[in-house]
Amino acid sequence: MSVFFYGSAIIAILATLMVITRTNIVHALLYFIVSLLAIAVIFYTLGAPFAAALEVIVYAGAIMVMFLFVVMMLNLGQVTQDQEKAWLVPSIWIGPSIMAVPLLIEVLYAINLQQEQMAHTVIGAKEVGASLFGPYVLAVELASMLLLAGLVGAFHLARK
Amino acid sequence: MFSFQVGSLLNIALILGTVLGAAALLIWVERRLLGFFNDRLGPNRVGPFGILQSVADVIKLITKEDWIPPFADKLPFVVAPIILPIVMLLSFAMIPFAPGVGIIDMNIGLLFVMAMAGLAAYSAMLGGLASNNKFALLGGLRAAGQMISYEVFLGISLLGVVILSDSFSLRGIVEAQSDGWYVFPQFIGFMVFMVAALAESHRWPFDLPEGEAEIISGFNTEYSGMKFGLFFVGEYIGMLFMACLIPVLFFGGWHAPFGLEFGNEIISGLFWMAAKTSVFIGFFVLVRAALARPRYDQLMSYGWLVMLPLSLLNLLITGAIVLMQGS
Amino acid sequence: MSTPEESSIENRAELPAVINELYGKFGESSFVRQHTAEGMPTLWVGRDKLLDVLRFLRDDYTPRFEMLLDVTAIDERIRVHREGQPDSAFTVVYHLMSFSGNCDIRLKVALPENDQNIPTVISLWPAANWHEREMWDMFGINVEGHPNLSRIYCPPTWVGHPLRKEHPARATEMEPYAMSDEVQDREQEALRFSPEEWGMSRKSDTSEYMFLNFGPNHPAAHGVIRFALQLDGEYVIDCVPDVGYHHRGAEKMGERQSWHTYIPYTDRIDYLGGVMNNLPYVMAVEKMAGIVVPDRVQTIRVMLSEFFRICSHLLFYGTWAVDLGQLSPLFYCFVDREKAFNIIESITGGRMHPSWFRIGGVAQDLPNGWDKLIREFVDYFPARLDEYDKMIMANTTIRQRTRGVGVMNTQDAFDWGMTGPALRATGLEWDYRKDRPYSGYENFEFDVPIAVNGDCYDRAAVRVEEMRQSCRIIKQCLENMPSGPYKSEHPLTTPPIKEKSKLHIETLIDHFLSVSWGPIIDPTEVSMAIEATKGINMYYLVNDGGSGAYRTRIRTPSFIHIQAVPFLSRGLMLADFTAIVATTDFVMADVDK
């Protein structure tokens, strides 16, 4: 199992690296989808197939399609591409990299600690549903209110 | 000793071979059927009754120059046609063809199918965007809008089935139908699913992403050779998949109607599964021959104003009835 | 024949009412009257008074002349017989038509060689736009005030104006054509669409427009035409039709062919109309020659014309359905069309372009057993149409796609020169066959189908009903086919009746000359129009006493109808655009001549 985990984790990291280094937004989105798919595999290996499926349906399936949709409608052109190329000059990377190193060490340490505790109980749709409409029902209601507000807002904007 | 067991290598090989062969045959079947409906012959020259037409087509497509237009965005241009057949074939892994025949039984089978359907949209979108052609771009936009919208109803229309069978697993759904097909209690769900399935696989009359009279060939305008072939085959695998999924979800899968079982349960199951699938393939072709294409805004308003309320209503009523029976 | 001397001593009371009124309003001295073979009121008017006269005829005169049927020009510089006509190097001809009064008038303006300018009449009739561009392209007549006076048929790189008499008519009269790389680059560059030339902006406040080349090779363009579409998303903001890809110079060919040998060219104008194209041409020549054709000829002509109307409408019906995404009707329509073509083939020997009508008759008599084939067809066809009604016209999707799309009212139709089914779909019951019967149409019982809304659905519905009426006419032809000769006895009938040549040497010489040169007809002018498949098809022939026409003008309905496509499609969606293009029902050969 850990082979699957490390494999997909590496793919996810590489793909995400590609996402942030692409100047062509379509290519970036393509790699982002790969990254999301890799994360879905990680969910699955961790025993959360429902979360994995939702990850693909919602993120890779719907949200990214929406992004692409918007990209198709926008015509960014050569100017933005040149601008983004300028952002990729190596010197710009030094600062963020130094700040990221402690984070990486922390994460690795945390993962190491958790290694023994990685439980393999499968959390299926039923369990997710039961907990959403059981202990977390208030959160669900709040989230649905928020989404409703978003929906009404979108409807209002679209009518304009 | 050969044994039919879900996930056995033999099973995988046979199913893959059958699906690919059936998809190729389907191209011929559709053209012959269309010919029949259209008062003409259809392909009848290659092999007996023209049955080898697809072979000839594949040879032609493979030997054609593999051309990428110089103005295209190469990476997505190449990736786009590969996505469609892959996700469609992956979806087939979930289909339970008969007791013991299938590739994998996931407890989230239906969700997996939905996820793959969501990924299929990329094929048309990337193809349309990468071609750098205005007709292709319009086709890609149409594909994106259409597939996102109809995916919503596709998913919601199935929830009734999930509630009734208490399972996301396709095999579980079929087994739950041993004492009655879901088409009767879930008729609205079935109708919505049929329409959404047509739109999702952009089959006629929802072929707007490639609406010939308007945008020439839509997202695949710039494609030729085997890259076009992949789009083409992917579409037919998708149609075959939908024709398999409908019996599984609503018509009892491998269960024989009126107790007409015969012989071994695997053979009987496969026979009935194939028979039901064929009926829906015939139906898809008939729809293609008979109906006219709606306009894009009509398609969208039909989806959001008719299909969505219908499928939500279906979900609400099904849930209410199940809750009442349960209590 | 033009006899101007007589006109001045004619009693004013005997003049056509419109001329009388014009004389009263603008003074008799403003006009010169000309006589033409078909007797249409024809007046020469000064360039300075042109717009006033046209406006008067359009707005103030009763009955109003609602439609500008045709605008064209004549290069008069080498014309010999111009007795009684004012001096002119180039004559611009305006043909006005009144539907309320069921009459026509022709106005001519003389232009001297050194001043080839004429004011535009677009402000009166928007349809004049393309006529004037055509006049500029073909004759080099400058139209003052025209918004975009560019070539319409010839490429922008063309040198010379083809319908001028000095322009060669054959490739062999010109230098051999070679396309070097530079020439190719230049031609390609000339094809680039520049929105600014057409008054289109590249972006609005909120979005950038996409300019889409719909054609010249597009599955739904029905031939080689290019529509440059200005799109905002899928919405058509504006569109510019670009024609000329199919231009063959049919009018120029008319100046070099003899009367007889031009007949096959007419078939190829509206290539879906077949022999129906021959009809206005041979009728015009017969009118000039004074030939009266026998009843049998008239009935045969009517019967074949109606067959071609059915063929043309069937093609429209099927392709319209395909453009709306319905695949099957095309094949059914083609099966029926094939049956009609089989009958045409067994009668004429040809299928799409039989070129079967002759000056003074038809090529052959009907074959033995012709009635059996036609009886089978008239029994079979109406039932098929009923089936198509259920499949296409009653289809909900098709109704939703076409009702209220591409709407045009009768006044718009007048302004844009729409005739035929497009005009009748707006609710005007006017059919050339009914209102000005020719070739014996007055003897037939048939209805003129009309609709009320003038949208895509109505245009199609009118055509469908016309097929039923055509079938009815064919049935009457079948039941009442007169006996008698299939050619007129008139000496100018071409080719003449052969039996006469066998009497003595004089008749043989006559026959020989008549066959090799064709008829020589006294100089005059004539125009003849018919209700063709797509609208009013008119031939205007100027005869200078030669063996062929001095000037052949073909008024084709498709050319004028395409001009209205931008008007019909603004603000609609791309899918509506194909529905509009399909119901405009044009044939590119008819557009480009």
Describe the structure.
The complex is a heterotrimer of chains A (160), B (327) and C (593). Chain A has 160 residues and is an all-alpha fold. Chain A is built from seven helices and no strands. In chain A, α2 packs antiparallel against α3 (49-73). Chain A is globular. Chain B is mainly α. Chain B has one domain (70-326). Helices cover 68% and strands 0% of the residues of chain B. Chain B is built from eleven helices and no strands. Chain B has helices at 9-37, 53-63, 74-92, 109-130, 134-165, 170-176, 187-200, 212-215, 225-250, 265-290, 296-326. Chain B starts with 8 loop residues before the first helix and ends with a helix. Chain C folds into two domains: 17-144, NADH:ubiquinone oxidoreductase Nqo5 subunit (Beta Polymerase, domain 2, 2-Layer Sandwich); 251-558, Cytochrome-c3 Hydrogenase, chain B. Chain C has a five-stranded mixed β-sheet with strand order 1-2-5-4-3. Chain C has a three-stranded antiparallel β-sheet with strand order 8-9-10. In chain C, a hairpin with a 4-residue loop joins β4 (90-98) and β5 (103-111). In chain C, α9 runs antiparallel to α16 (456-479) and α9 (295-323) packs antiparallel against α20 (574-584). The chains are: A mainly alpha (160), B mainly alpha (327), C alpha+beta (593). Chains in contact: A-B, B-C. Chain A binds chain B through residues 24, 26-27, 30, 33, 49-50, 52-54, 56-57, 60-62, 64-66, 68-69, 71-73, 122, 124-125, and chain B through 73, 75-76, 79, 106-108, 111-112, 114-115, 117-119, 121-122, 125-126, 128-130, 137, 140-141, 144-145, 147-148, 151, 155, 168.
What's the structural blueprint in terms of helices and strands?
The complex is a heterotrimer of chains A (160), B (327) and C (593).
Chain A lengths: L1 H20 L3 H21 L3 H25 L3 H11 L3 H24 L10 H8 L4 H23 L1
Helix pairs in contact in A: 1-2, 2-3
Chain B lengths: L8 H29 L15 H11 L10 H19 L16 H22 L3 H32 L4 H7 L10 H14 L11 H4 L9 H26 L14 H26 L5 H31 L1
Helix pairs in contact in B: 1-9, 1-10, 2-9, 3-4, 3-9, 4-5, 5-7, 5-11, 7-9, 9-10
Chain C lengths: L3 H6 L7 H10 L4 E4 L7 E4 L1 H14 L6 E9 L14 E9 L4 E9 L5 E3 L8 H12 L2 E3 L36 H11 L18 E5 L11 E7 L2 E8 L7 H7 L6 H5 L10 H12 L5 H29 L4 H21 L8 E2 L2 E2 L7 H24 L2 H7 L7 H6 L5 H4 L7 H4 L20 H24 L25 H12 L7 E8 L4 E8 L7 E5 L1 H7 L1 H5 L4 H11 L3 H5 L1
Parallel strand pairs in C: 2-5, 6-7
Antiparallel strand pairs in C: 1-2, 3-4, 4-5, 8-9, 9-10, 11-12, 13-14, 14-15
